[in-house]
Design goal:
Layout (H helix, E strand, L loop, with lengths): L1 E5 L2 H18 L4 E4 L6 H12 L9 E4 L1 E3 L10 H8 L11 E2 L8 H14 L5 E4 L21 E4 L2 H7 L12 E4 L2 H5 L3 E6 L5 H9 L17 E6 H4 L3
Parallel strand pairs: 1-10, 2-3, 2-6, 3-5, 6-9, 9-10
Antiparallel strand pairs: 4-8, 7-8
Helix pairs in contact: 1-2
The structure holds 2-amino-2-deoxy-6-O-phosphono-alpha-D-glucopyranose.
Length: about 240
């Protein structure tokens, strides 16, 4: 595992964007696994900047996102599809048909999840998976206690996650209680993993995930078992390592 400690959030974002752009240059039709949340926003801004300068093209890239809130339409401002459009897809040359986000309005979540697993397989698997980390060590929406063997599935969000994500909604009551999420198995099958973390509120989870035992209680700890993980974080998030 490689660890890069950056001085600032901006430097962290630039380093993460460097790793993603290297992947895209090396394999222009790569499959990128993408993440949402506050952490990767700066990474996406940096990628957009390099695209606008003509340094990078996503014309052949395919993308799959980690997760989506159940019950939110793609046009809802807090849906992860909307997040991806506004933070990245609308500003680069990726083909709309090559971007994939789970459908939060799926009538039958089990069918949607099975189709997503098939899609990932049909794309040939994920070349580089970008991850953030929840304060309780969750990755995507795989909450503490979730089975490591799961593929894409329906998740009940923990109180901790609802609380953490309430900042993006008008009130806590509006935060969906369920989501569709890739499972740990999908994530672990990615060829390479890039995890970004910033801020003191992630420091304990980062410590538990990378210095503690591999346990379902800290979902990110499973990454210790992956052969190609890069952790990029700012000082505040990495200071306990
Ligand atoms: C959500 C997402 C995760 C993300 C986490 C942390 O729960 N499902 O993929 O890693 O939030 O978000 P933030 O980066 O805002 O701390």
């Amino acid at each position: 595992m490689r660890i890069y400690q950056a001085e600032t959030y901006q430097a962290m974002s630039r380093r993460a964007a460097n790793i993603i752009s290297a992947q895209v240059i090396y394999k222009p039709d790569c499959v990128l696994g993408l993440a949402t949340g506050g952490t990767p926003v700066g990474t996406y801004q940096q990628l957009v900047e390099w695209f606008q300068k003509g340094d990078l093209s996503f014309a052949e890239v395919r993308s799959v996102n980690l997760d989506e809130y159940l019950g939110l339409s793609p046009h809802h401002e807090q849906s992860y599809r909307y997040f991806m459009q506004t933070n990245l897809f609308d500003h680069i040359d990726i083909k709309p048909e090559n971007t994939h986000v789970l459908n939060g309005l799926a009538k039958d979540p089990a069918v949607e999840c099975a189709a997503y697993n098939k899609l990932i397989r049909d794309l040939g698997g994920i070349d580089l998976q970008l991850l953030g980390m929840g304060r309780n060590g969750h990755i995507a929406f795989n909450e503490p206690g979730d089975d490591f063997g799961l593929e894409t599935h329906l998740v009940s969000l923990t109180e901790n996650t609802i609380e953490a994500n309430a900042r993006f909604f008008a009130s806590r009551d509006e935060v969906p209680r369920h989501a569709l999420s890739m499972g740990i198995k999908n994530i672990m099958n990615a060829r390479r993993i890039l995890i970004v973390v910033n801020g003191e509120e992630k420091a304990e989870a980062v410590y538990q995930a990378f210095c503690g035992p591999v346990t379902k209680q800290v979902p990110a700890s499973v990454l210790q078992l992956h052969p190609d993980v890069t952790l990029v974080g700012d000082k505040a998030a990495l200071h306990k390592l």
